[in-house]
Amino acid sequence: MDALRATLDSTDGQVATVSRTSSPPPLDLLSPPPVVAEYWCHTQVRVTKMKYVWTISNFSFCREEMGEVVKSSFFSCGPNDKLKWCLRINPKGLDEESREYLSLYLLLVNCGTKSEARAKFKFSILNAKREETKAMESQRAYRFVQGKDWGFKKFIRRDVLMDEANGLLPNDRLTILSSLVVFVFMPIKLVCPLYAVPGCCFYLDVVVGRECSDEPVRPYWLEQSFLKVLP
Q1: Distances (CA, A) of 117 to 8, 34, 35, 163, 211
Q2: Residue 186, exposed/middle/buried by CB under 10 A (0-12, 13-18, 19+)?
Q3: MATH domain: from which residue to which, for each copy (predicted)?
Q4: What topology does CATH give the domain 43-188?
Q5: What predicted TM-score, i.e. pTM, was given to this entire model?
Q6: What residues does each domain of the chain span?
Q7: pLDDT per residue over 164-183, tens digit each?
């Protein structure tokens, strides 16, 4: 089933645009930078994908009023991942505008040593046949800082969810599937001093170990380090 598009918002009142942006591919860490410089930086983008299933038993007995919250346990994308996430719902909506809906959000609980992370996500409900249905997804990666959430204030109407004919609450259980793609930017500062050798007219070929005449002096990139070329 194709995912539905909807307005993406956060509980602090922010509404996101859904325009797509493109970014250039990362530099090859084992290649020299295209411009000679005394210092340069390589930013690695770590991409992690995961799925998280949250089941709420006896959902019809959730007595929370409008604006009140139910949260899942914390989860991360791996045993060594310091980013901690959770899902949160407002069973009777976040505010007056959404009181006829269930609101659903992804919350960054702890960002560890990082100042922020970016994530794309898709929420869906698993029906009685364990099929994904009523899916909604973000159209791009959104910026999360610690304590920030993004999601859908009007994820699904309560009357649709509670209707037994729709099979969305088998045995009075609400099962939410969250598919998550997390992007973490990891800048690596590299100090690579270059050495000019005035008056020299040959260079040493590091690969084959031969001397060549009438060639300019140039630095070589080997195992992330420039080599000093001596006359």
Answers
A1: 17, 28, 29, 37, 50
A2: exposed
A3: 49-180
A4: 2.60.210
A5: 0.66
A6: 43-188
A7: 999 999 999 999 999 999 99
